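A protein record in our archive is deliberately plain, so that people and models can read it alike. The tokens are whole numbers drawn from a learned vocabulary of local backbone shapes. For reference, a complete record is included directly beneath this paragraph.
>
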Amino acid sequence: MNRPEHTKNICEIILIMIKEGENPIGDFWKRSNEEQYRLWKIGRDNEGNIIGKTVTKCDGKINISDHQVGKGLDILFLSEDNTQIIEPKKGWDYWHTEWTRRGGKPAIKGDAGHFGG
């Protein structure tokens, strides 16, 4: 899926989420190489060895993230009063099934909110 197709599909699925009673917001649509590397360093020592909980497998240099090329979006779901991040009412599996039906990449284990193209 190219970037314009990804953007169109993300917009469509967010509209569908809203129509179906969810309260989604997008986060981290586009990341710089530096920001991706900063996130990769979380939970790693100076040599890159895992020493704690990590947030990404992509270092932004060798392993490029969908976010770096504008083809990844983290979708969060908010409570009705917009004060808390919650699980989607229909569940992550439901939304990832809808996403892959539109040509998106399957869910990444441990990163349910990521919708990549």
Observations:
- The longest helix spans residues 3-19.
- The CA atoms of residues 43 and 52 lie 4 Å apart.
- Strands lie at 24-27, 72-78, 85-86, 114-116.
- The radius of gyration is 15 Å.
